[in-house]
Amino acid sequence: MKVAIVTGASSGIGRSAAIELARRGAGVVLTYGGNVQGGLDTVAAIEKEGGTAVALPLDLGDTSTFPAFRESVAAALRDTWGRGTFDALVNNAGQAEAALFEDTTEEMFDRLTRVLLKGPYFLTQQLLPLLADGGAIVNTGSSSTATAGLEPGYSVYGSMKGGLDVLTRYMAKEFSVRGIRVNCVSPGPTRTRFAGDAFSRFPELAAPLAARTALGRIGEPGDIGAMIAALASEEGRWVTAQVLEVSGGFNL
After folding, report:
1. Looking at the keywords, is Oxidoreductase present (predicted)?
2. What is the largest CA-CA distance in the chain?
3. What is the pTM of this model?
4. Fewest beta carbons less than 10 Å away: which of 53, 126, 193, 214?
5. In DSSP terms, which residues pair with 182 in a beta bridge?
6. Per-residue pLDDT tens for 132-162?
7. Is 157 known to be catalytic?
8. What is the CATH number of the domain that holds 174?
C-alpha cells in the first residue's frame, strides 16, 4: 500500500487532500496543529470510507520538533503499515495573516517565514530519508503570488508563498536523481477556515470573489484536494517542477 503524509489536515484543503489520497488507496499520516479534534475527525472520515490513517501533532513553526516528528512518522509507518518508507509528502500546513506594509511587524514577518517557508523546507529535509525513490512532493502555494489582481496586506504572506514556488523548482531539480517529483498547487479564494474562518464570519466576501472567477464561484476544499491527490499519485507521474494554479480562473 502507498502511504502519504499530509500536513495541516485537520480541516480545509489538507483534510480534503488526505481523504482524496485515501480514496486512491493510500494510507495517510496526517498532522494537526492546535485543532486536535479536527485531526481525529479527518481520521474518522477516512476510516468511514474503509481507509487507514494516523494523526500526529506537528508544530510547523518550530524546527526543533522535527527530529521527534520524524521518529513518530517512522513508528507509524512501521506499526500501521509495516513499512520503513512513505510515498508522498503534501506540505500543506500554514497560516494566513494580513497587514499593510507599513503596519507589518518584524514578529509577524518572522512568524510567517517560519511557518510558510522555513517549516516546509526543513520538514522536507528531515523526512527525505524516509521518502521512497520515485515518490512525490506537493507543496500548497497561493494565487497571492500572481502578477495581477493582488490584494493589499499580503506582502509577507505572498512573498513567502512566492519563495515556496521557487523552492518547488529547486527541490524538483535536486530530487530528480531519485525519481522524486515535486510540484506546487496555487489555490485561489477557497472556502476554508483560513484567515480566522473568514468566509463563515463574513459570508458577504464570497460573492465579489466569485464574480472575479471565470467559473463563477469560489473554490471548495475538494477542488484543491483532488488536484493535490492527482499530482501525488500515479496520474501525475510525468509532471514535475510545476506551479499549477487551481483557482477556477480567478482574475482571468
Report:
1. yes
2. 52
3. 0.95
4. 214
5. 137
6. 999 999 999 999 999 988 989 999 999 999 9
7. yes
8. 3.40.50.720
